[in-house]
Amino acid sequence: MIPQIDSQIGITTYNTSFDGIGGKIRSAPEDFHVSEKISEKSFNSIKEQDGYAVFKLTKKKIDTNHALSDIFKRKGIRLKALGLKDASAVTEQFVCSNNSGNTIDEFATDKYHLKKIGYVKKPLSKKDMIGNHFKIKISDCSPGLSKFSEHDRILNFYGYQRFGSKRPVTHLVGKAILQKNFKKAVDLIVSFTSPYDSEENTAIREKLADKSNYARYLEQVPPQMDVERIVLQEMIDHGSEQKAIRAIPLNLRRFYIQAYQSFVFNLSLSAAFVDGENLFECRDGDVCFDDSDVIGKFVRGMDQRLALPFVGYSYYKKTRFHPQISKILESEEIYPKDFFIKEMQEVSSEGGFRQAAIHCTDYFASDDIVEFTLSRGSFATILLREIMKPEDPIAVGF
Fold this sequence. Notes:
- The chain has helices at 4-8, 40-44, 64-75, 170-178, 182-191, 199-208, 214-217, 226-238, 241-246, 250-274, 322-332, 380-388, and strands at 32-38, 52-59, 79-81, 90-97, 106-108, 112-120, 129-137, 287-289, 295-297, 305-310, 352-355, 360-366, 369-375.
- It is of the alpha+beta class.
- Helix 4 packs antiparallel against helix 5, helix 4 crosses helix 10 (250-274) and helix 10 (250-274) crosses helix 11.
């Protein structure tokens, strides 16, 4: 049986025959270790001096954005990450300065450690990151982890983090923005509740469901609800929902749109699998990625990986998945042209393509430990849900 939260984020199926071992993850941050991998060419470009500083950031109990924000506040150095890592893990990643000026050699707090490892002539970007290596302990699980053998046949769904994890709302906000329903977007951001959220957060959100309470309860909104505070302050000052949404940092507003695109992708992948489409092999007419992640039409004899459309205003209809996607868009009352937003053009998205199946290498499992490497953009939790088949993913650490 598919957990409710899976259905809420567009995942309506399992695609492996494994029974599942249950258990839980992230009992301690040390149980979930993530190490970022960059290409050999990018790694070899790091030299001892001159250019833009490159650092290794090791952290736990803090996400990437908040760690980099704290570094800027404390040291005045603005750094950019290649990928985002959440707080419920021990993570190692590369971060890079965007200017060749002021820098430091090393800095640490109780939550993170920053160490300079060299310099590059051109700032590193997310294109330099090729994937992540995971080492994960599954606590309180049934025997049988070593018997799971379908790691190379996992659908490439977007994971829970993409949608807010404990509070799966990001895609709903994105849809409201696409439909130019900025009032609904504000309501979702400040007052959408989830059974997995804390009692404190739920209590304040229930009060904020009444717009007349905004000014009264603003100071009671906890610091970690920083986006909510931005939106509330703008609503108090100007009373305009569109201005309130625009006050949110651009990268996060774009993320809301991407989250909705991810929801549509999950629904599309689910529907295609249920309809019997082969999602692990390419065939004539398919759009595919090659070994260099270059997109193109299927060519016999080449090593290519099947791709599905990631719907935007330039949605490509000529794939075998258009029947499923068109039905989903019709049901959602969303059309490709909606992804171009005249009122907020900076968050418009043309869309593209995403790999249909997870590319998993270096897989190893024994007892309650599993290790593997995933290519950039794939989620460890999606592989873990097929191994564990959890009844309540969020309750067991997803």
